[in-house]
Amino acid sequence: MSASLPATEGFDPAFDEFDTWPVGTQLNALWQSQLAAAAVVSGALPALTRAVEAALPCLEAGGRLIYAGAGSSARLAAQDGAELEPTYNWPPERMIVLIAGGTGALLQAVENAEDNEAAAQDAVREAHIGAQDVVVGIAASGRTPYTIACVKAARERGALTIGLANVPDTPLLAAAEHAVTVETGAEPISGSTRMKAGTTQKIVLNLLSTTLMTGLGRVYRARMVDMRSRNAKLRTRAVRMVTALANCDEEQARFALDATNGHVKPAILVACGITAEQAQEALARTDGNLRRALKNLGLATARRAT
Q1: What is the pLDDT of residues 90-134, one digit of tens each?
Q2: How far apart are CA 270 and CA 268, in angstroms?
C-alpha cells in the first residue's frame, strides 16, 4: 500500500476473480465482508462514548446537531438526520446536513464538489455555527477537503467537533476535537466505500443519534416517547406505548392521547391519574424528561411491559 493512498482505496486480492464467481459465491463473500466490517465498530465505542458525553451538554443548552460530508457519507448522514424529527420529535431546525454540492447531491453525484473548501467555509458561516453546536464530519478516507474544511471552520467558531473516518491518523481526525476511527480496509470492489465503510458509517450514526436522543430524554424504557402520532401506524404505536407504560387499557390510553393532542409523554402521565394541564406542567419542570416527571409526581405505576 502506497503511503499516499488511504487503505479504503486499496485492493483486496481475495476478490481478484470476483467477476468470475457464481452469483451465490459473490453474495456470500460480500455478506461476509459486511459482517467483518460491522464487527470492527466495537473498537470505536470508547471514542464514540466520549464524543456523545461531550455532545450532550451542548444539545441540552439548545445547540444543533450538524452533519458534514460529501458523496455517500453525506447521503448516509442525511438519512440519519431525516429520521430524528419523526422518531424523536427533534426540531428540524436543529438538524442540519452540510453536503458538498448542496442538496442536489443527495440524488445525483457531484464528484468535484468534495474538493471545494471555500464552499465548506461558506456553508459553515451561512449556518451561523457557534459554541453550542455539535458538528460531525464523516469521510471514509478521512481526507475529503470539503469535510475537513467544515470541521476546521466549525471548530474555529467554537463548535464541538467530531470526526468519523475509516482510516486512522487522517486530517479529518486531526481537525476534530473527538476522533472516531473504524478501520475497514480495502473494499470488495476496490474504492467503493459505500460498501464496508458505508455500512460502518451508518452503524456509527445510528449509535450516535440514538444515544444522543436517549440522553436528551427522548427515549423512555426503550420507547420513542417523543414520537408524534401522525398516521394510523403511529397512532396504534402510541396507544401501545401508553397502555404498556401507564399500565392501563387501550380505552384509557386513547382518552389520554386525545387529551394531550397525541403527545405520548403527557398521555402517559394523564393515564396515571393527573390532568393534561398537570402533565404539561410536570414535564416542563423536568425539561421534558418523563422518568424524572414520574418520580417527582410519585407516579411509580408505569411498568416495564412483558
Answers
A1: 999 999 999 998 888 787 777 788 889 999 999 999 999 999 999
A2: 5
Instruction: Give me 301's grid cell.
Output: 405505576
Q: Is the pLDDT of residue 153 over 90?
A: yes
Taking CA atoms, 31 is separated from 28, 34, 73, 140, in Å, by 5, 5, 20, 20
Task: Estimate the crossing angle of helix 45-60 against helix 196-215, to 10 degrees.
Answer: 40
Cα(245)–Cα(268) distance, integer angstroms: 7
Could you give the CA distance from residue 287 to residue 293 in angstroms, rounded to a whole number?
9
Q: What is the pTM of this model?
A: 0.93
Give the Cα separation of 113 and 105 in Å (integer): 9
Supply the residues annotated as catalytic. Answer: 83, 114
Helix 264-271 crosses helix 250-259 at what angle (to 10 degrees)?
A: 120
* Residue 144: partners with Cβ closer than 8 Å, 6 or more residues away: 69, 70, 71, 73, 100, 114, 172
